[in-house]
Write a structure and sequence with these properties.
- This protein is an alpha/beta fold.
- It has five helices and six strands, in the order ααβαββαβββα.
- The strands form two sheets. The protein has a three-stranded parallel sheet, with helices on one face.
- The chain is elongated, with a radius of gyration of 38 Å.
């Protein structure tokens, strides 16, 4: 063993050394530094600007349009006053207040049916005959609205030929079992209603 002592006191071991074995021990490792504190959270994002449609005044993107339109449909059968309460009410609340004096709107009535609009247990919500009656009733509601409101510039019923790849049901998932949106050409009562409306327009 090798012994190392202070120069002035040959019988004194260095501080912290209790005997010869301590001189051969490795010094204790230096503990790692503590991890840095986590970064402060980012500041919250600024509040979103209101949608142009719901702004107090129209933005350039809205004022640049001649006509504005929103598709609103229902799939649960004929309902008296549905056009007035649901569609016209929506336009009155969200669209008309934000349009300029030179802008107009177009409306898009439902003109379609379905043979798959049923609950998962197979109980129909509204079958093809039910859709036909519903769309015929709604046709009159849209036409009545357009006649008394000059802001309605056009009516575009959806749709004529049908859409084999469109989901025809409100209640079943949009997959291949439920793709059967039937066009207005095969909806006899609704087709007759729109034909009568078209004839009344052509006579004016």
């Amino acid at each position: 063993f090798l012994f190392f002592f202070t120069e002035k006191s040959p019988n004194t071991v260095p501080e912290g050394v209790r005997g010869p074995g301590d001189l051969l021990k490795e010094p204790p490792p230096t503990p790692p530094p503590p991890p840095p504190p986590p970064p402060p959270p980012p500041p919250p994002p600024p509040p979103l600007s209101p949608s142009p449609l719901h702004s107090p005044s129209p933005s350039p993107s809205v004022t640049g349009l001649d006509w504005y339109s929103v598709d609103i449909y229902h799939m649960d059968g004929a309902s008296n006053g549905w056009v007035n309460n649901q569609v016209e009410g929506y336009y009155n609340k969200f669209i008309f207040p934000n349009l300029t004096a030179n802008q107009r709107v177009a409306v898009v009535p439902g003109f379609f049916g379905s043979d798959v609009n049923h609950f998962p247990n197979g109980t129909y919500v509204c079958n093809r005959t039910c859709y036909d009656a519903m769309c015929a009733l709604d046709a009159g509601g849209f036409w009545s609205w357009a006649q008394r409101d000059e802001r309605v510039a056009a009516i575009f019923p959806w749709n004529w030929n049908g859409c084999p790849t469109c989901n025809g049901s409100h209640w079943t998932p949009p997959h291949t079992c439920c793709m059967d949106e039937i066009g207005g050409r095969d909806m006899q009562r609704a087709r007759a209603a729109w034909t009568q409306i078209g004839k009344s327009i052509s006579r004016k």
